[in-house]
Design a protein that fits this description.
By secondary structure, the chain is mainly α. The protein has two domains: about 1-65, Homeodomain-like (Arc Repressor Mutant, subunit A), CATH 1.10.10.60; about 80-200, Tetracycline Repressor, domain 2, CATH 1.10.357.10. About 65% of the residues lie in helices and about 0% in strands. β1 (about 10) and β2 (about 20) form a beta hairpin.
């Protein structure tokens, strides 16, 4: 899963030596592969280290425990996989946003990882709170910018329901792609956009 490797130069652990990028990349790749194979509940740092061809100490120099490693790496991918484009129109922004979500959720590893982690957050309150802070809140904040821009352009009423709008951007697509795993072709995306726009405009004419 090459797109999960964190960008940038060598990283330095607090008070420690520079961390080698190739080791970090190998651990990241091994983590996602192992997580997809066994799920969060059965995931072990020993297995991740072995798959990466590294020692377990290499993990602890980067992340203190399984939960922290999971939150850090999953959040890194999740927050950069959904972009908020500014195309100049509400429909164009929605189309770009939804396509990015389809690409992210449709990844073979994501299809196995995302439902498992969501189920795990129902059992692990600390994991749930960490993901809310690192993924849910930033992504909803970014998506809100998309909708507020549309209101500023006059494409949505000033009093549109932001909370419902954010749910409409995420809920139907997640259900289709990640849960029931039905094909999501361009024609379906356009129909979904029609419904989102009509719902948000309410009494406003097209």
């Amino acid at each position: 899963m090459s797109d999960t490797v964190p960008p940038g130069g060598p990283r330095r652990a607090s008070g420690g030596p520079v961390l080698q990028d190739d080791v970090t990349a190998a651990l990241t790749e091994a983590f996602f592969t192992e997580l997809a194979a066994v799920g969060y509940g059965r995931l072990s740092l020993e297995a991740v280290a072995k798959r990466a061809g590294a020692g377990k100490a290499a993990i602890y120099r980067r992340w203190p425990a399984k939960r922290e490693m999971t939150v850090a790496l999953v959040s890194q991918v999740a927050t950069r996989s959904i972009k908020v484009a500014d195309t100049g129109t509400l429909r164009g922004d929605l189309r770009a946003f939804l396509q990015d979500a389809i690409d992210a959720l449709g990844h073979p590893l994501a299809r196995r990882i995302v439902p498992d982690l969501l189920a795990e957050t129902m059992r692990d309150e600390e994991l749930s709170e960490a993901f809310a802070k690192s993924i849910r809140e930033p992504r909803r904040h970014n998506a809100a910018q998309l909708l507020r821009r549309a209101a500023d352009r006059g494409e949505l009423p000033e009093d549109f329901d932001l909370e419902v709008g954010l749910d409409l951007l995420a809920g139907p697509l997640y259900w289709r792609v990640a849960v029931v795993q039905l094909p999501t072709r361009e024609e379906y995306v356009e129909r979904l956009i029609d419904h989102i726009v009509r719902s948000l405009r309410g009494h406003c004419p097209k």
